[in-house]
Design a protein that fits this description.
The structure holds two protein chains of two kinds. Chain A is mostly helical. Helices cover 45% and strands 7% of the residues of chain A. Classes of the chains: A mainly alpha, B mainly alpha. Chain A binds chain B through residues 29-30, 38, 41-42, 45, 188-189, 192-197, 199, 201, 203-204, 207-209, 251, 254-256, 258, 264, and chain B through 1, 4, 8-9, 12, 16, 46, 49-54, 56, 84, 87-88, 91-92, 95, 98-100, 102-105. Chain A: This is SoxAX cytochrome complex subunit A.
Amino acid sequence: MKLRSAIYLASAALSLALLTLASTLPSDAADKVDPVADAKAFKKFFTDKFPKVKLEDFVNGPYSMNEDLYKQWQDKEQFPPYEFSLEMGKEMFSKPFKNGKTYADCFENGGIGVRQNYPYFDAKEGKVITLELALNRCREANGEAPYSYVRDEMAALTAYMAFTSRGKPMDIKIPDDPRALAAYENGKEYFYTRRGQLNFSCATCHVQSPGERIRAEILAPALGIVNAMPIYRSEWSGMGTTSRRFTTCNSQIRGVPLSPQDDEYRNVEYYLSYVSNGLPISGPGARP
Amino acid sequence: MRNLMPKSALVLILVAAGAISASAAGSEDDFKTAYAAAEAANKEAGKLRNQWTTTANTLAAAKKAADAGDFDKATASAKEAEALAKASIFQATSEKTRWREMEIR
């Protein structure tokens, strides 16, 4: 009996030691930053969860979640609520700055059909550059005051640039640069980190609960969520930029939002855009 | 991935609830001490980039009550704000590793 007890005790001690060791050693998966594998797993998660939704339709957010909503989206697109913003953006984009230059001078291909390449990692600066940031830097470089990242002007400019890129697959690059990988990983961490008094992460709504209602709203899937930006939201009675979406998400869960275009927001946009690579640009979008 | 309401959420709720039920003494000095502690904790949460709107609102309520001379209410609000700030610090600290539990792999 004593021998049996000793064996049990030894087994238990060994199991405990192994468990302790396993919990202290970081797993390979946790340590290795592998954006390609992440993007593959991300797409698989959503296509498995919503087998009836075509991959390219995820960019339509809540409207991709069921047939009725999809019909609503099709009807909405007949007279899109973002049209006023699109026209405003087109006009703003072509209007010269005081120095005679235009936005087209700041972007590759004159800024037409390039939305799918943003955000990108700037090796010189060592940081992520979003389209909104690039637009304001263009303004400042040409002697103009920057626009608010959450107001109509920025939404109009990005709406126009997105519109000229519609249908082009998101094409975010992560260069072989440890700083770029760190920015990507930090963006991922931000996406999955719970914050605010409600203890929600971005993933709580957009990974765990897409298609579900949160009060009157239907939650969009995270896959392709940035491809539709900027968006007209009926709830806002107006347009919203990516910056506006991030900051309002934070305050809705009772977290104090960071400043628009802080590193965390730039990085999370980089992460979300990368895992949505291959899905078409659909912005500007409309949401309930 | 885990459930929508993990243990950490329960801890946060309990911490916040504990603060709400905490009784408060009513002198101006008590208020000042409680308010300074709450502000310090909220500042620490700010360094972790994880302040809560409710902490700021509760701090503002404490200040408003103190300005009106109601130090019982002001001290209670300040203690509540401190508990909220501490809960946000706990959240930010524990999420440094816990976020991976929700990650799609």
